[in-house]
Design a protein that fits this description.
Length: 271
């Protein structure tokens, strides 16, 4: 009696399995074929996209990201297509993906804002690597632009990591984008010192300074008249890179030339 029951169960299982093969077999086979072909097409697309990004000279930080995101999205769509062919209900998966997406969005809102800002910076290029910028109270040279943050090395060799959202939503001063910067120096003299003599010394100092650019032209003149004396404003132009070094050298040279010419500045002892 037991042997008959076992045989019946085996035959029942065999019949159900055979029916499942007949009913689902073509769908499974089609899904398998689509999986193989789809993965091959995705690889072909990835190689094509990699070549196109290289031709367009997309930033090195963006190219791998765009490529990986495109491949992942295509693979997810391929899996959904195969599940649809196999007749698997996608309602639960859609709800799960939606819930995970909402939770991730809330948890990573700040991170995603930095990411979006990084993409904008890399595409719009308000500054680039090697530019000198002033941002978030820091001045230095941009050494790296990542998707989530930008690294600035200050002139006293401090490494400052600034979130990209701070750079895309607030004021950035790119002091090297144009290539030259103006140096403004204001000096005060007593009325007993001849203006033409002062201007002659200043002009000679500017002419002897190789760091001073010929264009735009220099400007030297009286900026303010006071009871105790007059102020002379000097406007000269320097290269953006190396600006601080050139500024220090020029000011030192100017001070020595004024002193050697017998011109006394306030607080300076006469020769």
């Amino acid at each position: 009696m037991k042997e008959v029951k076992v045989t019946d169960k085996v035959e029942n299982f065999y019949d159900k399995f055979l029916n499942w093969i007949i009913e689902k077999g073509p769908s499974v086979l089609l899904g398998f074929v689509i999986l193989i072909v789809g993965l091959w097409l995705i690889r072909v697309f990835a190689r094509w996209m990699e070549r196109r990004l290289a031709q367009k000279k997309i930033n090195n930080s963006l190219s791998p990201f765009f490529l990986s995101v495109s491949v992942v999205v295509l693979r997810i769509l391929l899996v959904f297509l195969i599940m649809q062919i196999l007749g698997i209900q996608l309602t639960i998966f859609a709800a799960l993906v939606g819930a995970v997406g909402v939770a991730a969005g809330l948890a990573l809102s700040g991170t995603m804002q930095n990411f979006a800002s990084g993409v904008l910076i890399l595409m719009l290029k308000p500054f680039k690597v090697s530019d000198n910028i002033i941002a978030q109270g820091q001045e230095g040279t941009v050494t790296s632009i990542q998707l989530f943050f930008t690294i600035v090395t200050t002139f006293d060799n401090r490494k400052v990591i600034i979130p990209n959202s701070k750079l895309s939503n607030e004021v950035i001063i790119n002091v090297s984008a144009i290539g030259s910067r103006r140096l403004d120096i204001e000096l005060k003299f007593s009325y007993g010192i001849d203006l033409e003599t002062v201007k002659k010394v200043i002009d000679e100092t500017i002419a002897d300074s190789i760091s001073i650019l010929k264009t735009p032209e220099k400007r030297v003149g009286i900026s303010l008249l006071e009871e105790s004396g007059y102020k002379v404003l000097i406007n000269v132009w320097l290269q953006s890179h190396g600006f601080n070094d050139a500024k220090l050298a020029f000011q030192e040279k100017l001070l020595h030339n004024l002193k050697d010419s017998g011109i006394v500045l306030p607080g300076m002892a006469a020769k």
